[in-house]
Each structure stands twice: as structure tokens, then as C-alpha cells.
Input
Amino acid sequence: MDRNLSGRRRAEAGFTLIDTLMTVAIFGIIAAMAVPLMKGMSDTMLLAQGAREVERELQGARLKAVTSNRPLRVRFNCPAAGQYRMVEYTATTADTAADRCTQAKYPYPPTDRDPVTLPNQDGPIRQLNKKLSFATSVKALEFEPDGSVRIDNGGTGAWSPVTGTPGATVTVMRGTTTKSVTVNGLGKIQIQ
Output
């Protein structure tokens, strides 16, 4: 007789349909509240990743300028919006040409490695994520062989040394949210 009673209690110990529906409803409410938070986190992570990629390109250009003993520039929105590229300064009219960033005319890797023919230090064209853009007035930065930095002043003369605090600011934007990469005149590069 004790056997039948303990078997019946085991059969009654499960979850009812109402218990299961309540659990699913509570889970659905929590998930619905988490979706906007996750979207905001994903936007923030995407923006931070874009700023890190720009910062790495700037760090790489500075390092290459010092090690190769040649001025190198990083141009923004070149050849198209959201793209950027490290290019070697050649002291010719090619440096101001609209097609200076094009892969067809200035290939990466270069067709030769002869140090006499320039440019041979150009990097590949980089692309921000399609959801990001540059929100910056900085067109290009030039890293000198001593590690210092100059900024494109928009004129035809020599570029201006980066001065002041924080220096030059390259801003990456997603919607109305921004992340900045600053470069001071001595070449110190930071994400803000």
C-alpha cells in the first residue's frame, strides 16, 4: 500500500501547463527589455572597434615613418567616404592628387620595392564598418621620421605642425554617438 501512494505523489510532482506558460511569459518580458540594451551595447562596441582600427593605422604609420625614415600620411575619406589609407609622402604633385588613394594607380603591395622609386610605402585601403563614418575636419595627418605630426591645413604650402591640447582629433561617428582618436604634436595617439 505504501508503494501506490509514493508512485502517485511522484506523478503529481511535475509542472502544470500554467507553470510552464508563466515561465515562458516572464522569460519573454525579460528578453524584450534586454533587446534595446543589447542594441545599444552593440552600437557602442562597433564604434569602439572602428576607433581602435583607426588608432592602429595611425600607430602603424608613425612607426613606419620612423623606421623607414620617410614621411607617411594617413588620409581620411580617401578614396571614398569611410575609407582611409596610409600613403608615402613623395614631395610631388601626386601627393595632392584626388586619385592618390586609388588602388589602381598606387597599388598595394607596390609593383616594385626599389627605394628610389616612390611611393613604395603605401598601405592598403582600409574601410570603416558601413554603419560608421568619419565626422572630422581632419583630412590627413603626416607622420615625420622623428615621430612628430603635421596636419593638412587645406592650403598649398607646407602642412602645419600639430599643436595644443589634445592636438588633432579624428572622430568616428555612428548616428549621433562619437568616439575620438587624438594625436598630439609629438605623435602620442590616444582613443578618447
